[in-house]
Each structure stands twice: as structure tokens, then as C-alpha cells.
Amino acid sequence: MNPYLTSAVLAPLAIFVAACSPDSAGTKSQQDTAAAKIEVKASSELEQQARIKLSKLQQMMQQAQEKNIDVTREETIVWFAEQFLKFANWDEANPEAIEKAFGYERYYAEDKERLAKELPDFERKKVIQILDQGINVLGQELRGEIKRRPVNKVDWQNTKAADNMFVSNGKPIFPYDYFSKSVGQPLTNKEVYNDHLGAIYHGGENLYPVDHDRAINSFLLKEDGTFDQTLLKEVTEIEDTNIGFLLYWSMGIPEWVEQKESEVRIGRSLFTGFDIDNPLARDIWGKIIRKTGELTKGKKVTELGYILANEPHWYAEKDHWTYRFKEMNDISSYTLAKFQSWLADKYNGDIGALNHNWQTHFSAFDKVRIEIPIDTALKGKPIWYDWSRYNMDRSTDWFSFMQNELHSVNPDADTHIKIMPRMFMYDSRSGGIDTEALTELTTMIGHDAKSFGSRNIRPNKSSKWLEKYAFDWGSVAMFHDFLESVAPDKININSESHFLSSGQWRDLDARTSYVRSVYWLATLLGMDANMGWFWARDPDGSPEDRLEGELDFFDPGLGGAYAGSNNMQPHVTNEVTQVMYDLNSFSEEIIALREQPRPIRLFYSETTAINIDEYITKGYKLYESLFFEGLPLGFATKNIIQKQDNDKWDVIVVYRNAYVTDAEFDAVQAYLNKGGTVILDSKKSLSLNEYGQKRTNQLSAGKGKLIVLETNDIDKIKQAALQHVKSSSLPDLVVTEENGQPHKTIISRVVPQQDGSYLVNLINVGHHTANIDLSLRNGKPLEVIDMMTSIPMAKSFEMSSEKVLLLRVSARN
Fold this sequence. Notes:
Layout: H1 7-19, H2 28-66, H3 72-93, H4 95-103, H5 112-142, E1 160-161, E2 166-168, E3 171-173, E4 176-179, E5 201-203, E6 216-217, H6 229-236, E7 244-249, H7 255-260, H8 279-295, E8 306-310, H9 333-346, H10 351-358, H11 382-409, E9 415-418, H12 435-441, E10 445-447, H13 473-486, E11 492-497, H14 512-524, E12 529-533, H15 570-585, H16 587-594, E13 600-603, H17 606-611, H18 615-627, E14 633-636, H19 638-643, E15 651-654, H20 662-673, E16 677-680, E17 705-708, H21 714-723, E18 733-738, E19 746-752, E20 758-764, E21 770-776, E22 782-786, E23 791-793, E24 796-799, E25 804-811
Helix pairs in contact: 1-2, 2-3, 2-5, 3-5, 3-15, 4-5, 8-11, 9-11, 14-15, 18-21
């Protein structure tokens, strides 16, 4: 039985089953006709139910407005209800299109007929669900049982980028929207740009077509050196109405460039369709960046910055999945020449030193050769390190070039790069991305962090986190904590958040509790703006133009992206906006929570990450063990130690970091010399240079404290770290949980307020209900208020799975 059918339609369906039984009268065609009529009746009854509830909610909204109760949240429920009832009707009238959409995603393909048939009623059922929820909550407020804080709306015209946050009407604000909205819809179309879906201008959302798309791309410049005026109008005629971003889309390269430069595509990557070391490609892009940067200088559509690249990577190892997309199948003569020059600098012109390391016999640096893709059997050897480090340095050089070109004509332009979270989800370091260097380079933090709300839908992909947690919180948390440690004073933009779906996961009946908890967690940990993946409905309900007809994209993932996405999920799409409303209502509190010091710092070395297996995988285990102790976690690198105030943390923990450069070693020693505390898991930590050669120097305590544990026991390392957290770094309010499991699942943050109270944020990321107890170290009794509802609470209470609480706690007089 379809689990989404309500009792109101079970009776007609029972008649349908009886009519189609072997003993029933009538021909097969008569039975089919009867079935069709009953299905239409069932659908119309669901819509009728929804419209009755919609009318009731609107009447309640009118009553609330008469009492000066804010109904912004209900306005969004009404809007999504009306939209998805319309969408359900379109889906019902176009079953072939919906069946095709499910068919493009291999996870759904075998069941596409059933899914397409059930989708319209599923959507209607979910509309009823959000209406019921809206009626329930507004009813509580009308009866005086709860009191919600009015929504702090985003000013889509006048929001400004401040030093480390966006500001709207004098308060912090977290803009939200969907990356890749319906192409061609003007900003004036309120069915696409509004408070419900977000109203950020998308400058370059036409993602995958290689040629003339609505983005700043290689085709802007013609062979004669002039600009294609038709394409340039896509930039010059942007309405300067809403805040937005512009994207430099580098996937394609014109044919005339290939005719002039035969190597231009050698060493290309998935989303960069040319060799970044090619001088002609650089010349073209320099001209494009300068022209577009000058034309868009100071416009609102750049308030969220210029995105320098979409998910850049240059994986150069054998058997990597990107090879079939022709990524780094070889390197150009330009890349090789730059590598040779890099090696000459690295080895101070001593070719003998390189030959000793590589076990080769090159006569000079300009004779050096390397096979790309490189064999993973070489990992841990000097040749692997040198290539991997160079690959990172050359990509950082490319983005430095892009930013410098932009700033030469538009010095105040904000920039960021859509860095993939896989750098902190997986262990490979052959992709050419130095997350720290790129985060330091750009004026804003940029990425497309993701999470998994249910198991990975791809065969042979791990969902091990499901053994302990309701969703993959770690992919969000560890990545954000690293980015914020590197650049604590920069705005953090997720320009393609894959919290709702991705190529590796989706769930048609996703939990709204998951949606709320993952967006809340990401914002708590630093996310200032997000553009979710993705909105692909035209206002009439049809999939947008790119998803109609026969889909043949370079990236096969896009064709299947529509199925099981938020475009079919009224409950999910509504909850995204609802949680962003609540976050913006409490934006000042969220900022206070996220600006806490990070007393424990985990040492991170790209040098070790390049050289060993499972650097992130095993490092995550220590991170996970410390994350639930109520203290914000941070990272320490050479640059962080050298550039930031060392007094902002209490201890640096070094775990599985044997390989470090001399500069990294010296930074840790300098920290100790100034009185810092360092915990080593082993005396082998920091003992090798980048080439695996034993370091003659050893760390000494200096004026600080050096603890060498000689253990790989995560719990022992954790306890040692906690013992060296200063008492002044510990909150006076203690959060205790009991969940019946051998591991904690409550993410807690506590911030003392000027009036003596405490701001407390709790998120339960576990599968089970947890019993929570709040207490003060001095033993005084407590008063607890749920800030979302203004309801008093006991100091001990239950938290269900994925529950989010924001509390005000104070000592009772």
C-alpha cells in the first residue's frame, strides 16, 4: 500500500480493489476506466483536504495579524502549499516527463513508473503535513501557549558584506537561496525570487553546457581580441536590484584557441577545460577578468563576491574516478617546464639532491620527466611529495593570478572559490587543492560543504556514520572548523550546499528534523550564506529548460539530480526557509555562539596528509571524540601559529603527524618557546621531514609544556587534551547527557551573557532520545527558557533525535 495515502482515500481505493478482483463484473477496459476515475477522485480529495487546511491557516493568520503576531513563517507555508499543489497537478498531467526524470537517476530507475505515478499524491500529502504543522504552531501562539520572535527578514536589496558577516538593517543576517535557479527568470519574477526561495542574483548558474551559457566564460573573448557583445550583455545588463554573486565558469575553451594552441586541453580537469599553465589561456582569462571586473565594479550583484572557480580539482593519480572525464590524463609542456623550475628552486639548483631523493639520474632540471597520472604505489616517496606539493602550488598560483587580475581593476572586489569538502572527507591529496592556502588567499571563505541525511545510495560507498548518528554531521563540522580556524575573520559562503541531496545520497521522504539540524549546525559553525542544490522548477511546475528533452550532459550527475530532490519535496523546501527564518531571528545569538574561543587545537600538516594513508580518516576519530565535550574545536597549522594570537587557545594536540617541513617544525617549537602547551601522541611526531628523512632536531619544552604520550589510544589522547584546558575556558554551566549509548550525541555550546545568564545551544545528532541535565558548577538552582517558544522548562528534559534547542539559562534568585 502507498504509505502516503490518507484515510480519506482508503475507502474509494477499497472499491477500486473490489472492482478489479477476478470475481468482479465488467471488462478489463471498464475496470481500467473505473480505476482511472477513482485515482483522479483520490487525488482531488487530497487537494481538497489541502485547500480546506490552507483556508483555515489563512483565517488564523488574519486573526494573528489583528493581534500583531508576526505571520512571516505562515506566509511561507501558504506559498509553498500553493506552489506544490500546482506542481502536483503538473506532475500528474505529465507522467512521462516525471518517469523520465526518475529514470535518469540509477538509484530510482528500476522503479520509475511507480514513483512517477505516486509522486503527485506524495506531494499533496506533504503539503497537508506542512499545513497541519503551521495550523498547530500558530494555534499555540494564538492561544498564548508560546510566543515566537518575529522573523528578521533579509533585505535582498541592501544587505552588505561586513568584516566577518553579512548585515541587514543593522543586524547580522544569513542570506539563503538555491544555486542554479530556473535559467532565464528575471529578478522581477516573484515566483522565483522572493523571501521563500531566496532572492540572491545568480550570475552564472547555467552549470554544465560547455559553450555559451549565462556565466563569465572563455567564449566572451573573440579571436580578434574583441568581446562578444551578446554574451557581454549577460554581464552588463544584469539588473542592479538584488544582492548576488558572479561566477567565472572555466569549463570550456573556444575552438580558435585550440587551433592556435594545440596543448591547451592537455592537463584539463573536470570543471576547468584547459591547462591553467597555458600562456594563451592565461592571456584570454586575464582580459576577461579585467573587463568583467571593471564593468561590474561596485554593483549589488557582486555583494556575495566573485566565485573564481566551480569545484576545482586536478586529480593526478592513477585509477582516480576523474580520469574517465579526461582529468589530468597527461601534462602539457608548460606544466612540465614550471614543474622543472619549481624543483630547481626546491632543491636549490642541486640536481644531485633530487636524483638521490627520486633514485633517478637526470643530468639537469630541464631534463626531469614524470609520468602523470602518477602511480599511487609511490605515495610516501619523495617524487610523490614533490609532484603533489607542486600541483597544489600551481593551482594556488592560478587563483592568485585570477584574483590579482580582478583586483587590478576592482580592488575592493570580494572573492571566494567553491572548494569541495572532499578534502576533509577523504584522504587523497593528489587533487592540487591546498585548502588552507586558498582560504587564506581569497577575501571570503568559499566552499560547497555537504552532508548525508541517510545512507549513501552508491554501491560500495560507506555510510559507517549511521551506526552512531542520525546524519553525517562530521562532514559539515570538521570542514567548517578547519576553514574558520584558518580565516576566523572572513565571511563564509557555501555557494552550492549539498545538504538536501547530491550524487551520493537522496531521500524522497527526507526528515524535516534533519533539514533543521544540518542547516542549524552549519550556520552555528560559521556558514554566513548558503545557496542550496538546487531549484529547477519553472513557475508553471515544469522542470526548467535544461532538464527537458533528452539530457546529455558532460557530467551525468546533473541529469539525475532532479529525481528525489527538494523540487519534489514541499516539506523539505518549506523547512529550509523555516530554519533560515529562525536562524535570522536569532542571528545575534548565533554570532555570539560561534565567536567562542577554540581552546583545543588539532595540529594539521598538509605535508603529512600528502605522504600517508588515512590522514583525514583517522584524524577524524580524534576530532569526533573531542567534538561532544562542549568546547568549540579548532586547528593549528604553521601559518595559524605564526599569524594568529597564540593566547586564543590552551593546547595543541599533535596526532599522526610524522612528516613536517622544517618551517612547520620551527613554528611548533616557537609556540613552545613562548609558553605554549603541546601534546604529542608519540615521539615519532614531527620527527621526519617532507621526504621521510629523520630530523636531527627534537622538540623541547622551552618556556612551555611538552607532553609525549606514546599511545594511539584516542581516549587517552582526548583525556590528556581536556586536562590541559584552562578552567577559564570551561563554561560554568554543565550539560550532562544520558542516551543509553557508549558515545555522546549532544552538540552543546554555552556562552555567558553580560546579565549573568547563559546562552545554550543543543543539537542531538544521535538516533535516540537523550536525557539532558543542566547544572551550575556552584550548585545554584536554575531557570530555563526555550527561546524559540518563550516556554519555561525544567533543568532536566528529553531531547529527541535531531532536535535543536536554543535556551536562556540563569541562576534562580
